[in-house]
Amino acid sequence: MARIGVVGGTGALGKAIARRLVKGGHEVTIGSRSSEGALTAAAEIGAAHGAVNAAAAADKDVVIVTVPYSAHAGTFAQIKDAVGSAIVVDTTVPLAPPKVMRVQLPTAGSAAIEALGYLAEDARLVSAFHSVAAHKLIEDIKIDCDVLVFSDDVEARNVVVGLCGDMDLRGLSGGALVNSAAAEALTSILIYMNKTYGADGAGIRFTGLTKAPAIP
Amino acid sequence: MARIGVVGGTGALGKAIARRLVKGGHEVTIGSRSSEGALTAAAEIGAAHGAVNAAAAADKDVVIVTVPYSAHAGTFAQIKDAVGSAIVVDTTVPLAPPKVMRVQLPTAGSAAIEALGYLAEDARLVSAFHSVAAHKLIEDIKIDCDVLVFSDDVEARNVVVGLCGDMDLRGLSGGALVNSAAAEALTSILIYMNKTYGADGAGIRFTGLTKAPAIP
C-alpha cells in the first residue's frame, strides 16, 4: 500500500486514476485548488482524503499530476516544495487547443522535460498515462491500451509500472524521460483517430514483446 | 498498378518495401547511388528496374525514400528535380547513433518537416513506414504492426494507405504531416523495447477503431 496524492485530481483523468488506485488498495489523497472540490471528488470515488494541491503532495510515496497543459507550470510551482523525495508522475500532454489533433511539442521537447525544470534537482520524475482515455479508465472495464512509463530513475519507473498493474493496466517502460515526447505526441494521433476511425477512446498495444508483463 | 521508385532501395527497409510492392503487382524501380548496386538489388527481389536514385525517381507515380538519417538531406537533393508531381514518401527516422534508444527529434520537429523544406513548394509529401521492422517485412510473414501514414495532401495519404494494403499491411492515417513526429519518436521506443522486453521487432497496433481497414 502506497500513500499517493493525485494533484489536479478533480479532473476526468485524475479521478479515474485515483479511483483505480483506491480499488488497487492504495491510500489516495485527491488534490485540487480548493479543498472543498477535493473533498467532494474524494467522496465520489472513495479516496481517503481531499486537500489543496500542496497538502495533497506532502508526505506521499507517489504524487501524480493530472492537469491540463495550461496549468502545468503553475501546478508544479504549487507542489515543488511539498513533494520532497516522493516519486512525481507527470501525465501532462502538451495539447494546444483548438488544434488538438496536431502534434505541437514544446521547444524543450516534451512536457516531461519542462516538468524536470520546475522541480528540485534531485526530484524523482516519471512521465506516464498519456495515452489512456479518461472516460474509459473511470469505468470498471478492461482497458485495451498499454501505458508507457518514462524516467531516468529506473527504480521510480518500476514503481509506476507496478502501480499500473495494481490499476488493472499493462504498464511498459518506454525508457528515458526524454522519450516521453513519443507518448505525448501520440496522444494527438489518438484524438485524430477517434474522429477519423470512429473510436471511442482509441488506444495502442505493443506487439512482439516476449518478456513484457501479461495483459491483465 | 503504380510505377514506384524506391530510392535508397538497396538498404534493408528499401528492399523489403520494394519486394512487397512487387508482390502486390506494382512496377518497381530500385534506386541507389550506383546503378550496379541498384540492378543487383532489383534482381534479388524481382523488381523490374534498377537505376541511380535520380533516374529511379523520375516518371513515377510514387517515390519512396528509404535512407538513413545521415543521408536524408543529400538524397532529397538528388531527387528534388526528378520527382515532378509524384507522391514522395519519406520513411526516414531521425535516429542519432549511438543513442538510438533515445528520442532526439530535429529542431524542425521531425524528419518529415525537414524533407518538406528539401522539395519544391508543390511537392506531394507523405511520411510513413517508420515503425515496421525491415528484417520482418522482407519475410513472407504477417506483420503484427500498423503503419502510420501522415500528409497534408489527403489524396496522397490515401494512396499510400492503399499501398500498405497491397503490401499486406494495415495502413492508418495519422493525420497531418507534422504528426509524423509521433511515429518518428516511437521508433526509438520500439528499439528500446526490443532490448528491454526480448522482442525481435516490436510493433504497435491501434485499438478501438471501428471504421479502420481490417487487419490483413
The topology string of helices and strands of chain A comes to EHEHEHEHEHEHEHEHE
Judged by helices, strands and strand pairing, the structural class of chain A is alpha/beta
Tell me the major beta sheet of chain A: 8 strands, mixed
Query: What is the class of chain A in the CATH system?
Result: Alpha Beta
Number of helices in the DSSP assignment of chain A: 8
The strand line-up of the biggest sheet of chain A is 3-2-1-4-5-6-7-8
Average pLDDT score of chain A = 97
Oligomer: homodimer
The proportion of residues in beta strands of chain A is 15-25%
| Unreliable residue runs of chain A | none
**Any idea what the radius of gyration of chain A is?**
16 Å
Tally of strands of chain A = 9
Number of domains of chain A: 1
State the fourth-level CATH superfamily of chain A: NAD(P)-binding Rossmann-like Domain
* C-alpha end-to-end distance of chain A: 20 Å
Give me the CATH fold name of chain A: Rossmann fold
Shape of chain A: globular
CATH architecture of chain A: 3-Layer(aba) Sandwich
Structure description:
Two copies of one chain form a homodimer. The mean pLDDT of chain A is 97. An eight-stranded mixed beta sheet of chain A has the order 3-2-1-4-5-6-7-8, sandwiched between helices. Chain A is globular, with a radius of gyration of 16 Å. With 216 residues, the first copy, chain A, is an alpha/beta fold. Chain A contains eight helices and nine strands. At the A-B interface, strand 8, helix 8 and strand 9 of A face strand 8, helix 8 and strand 9 of B.
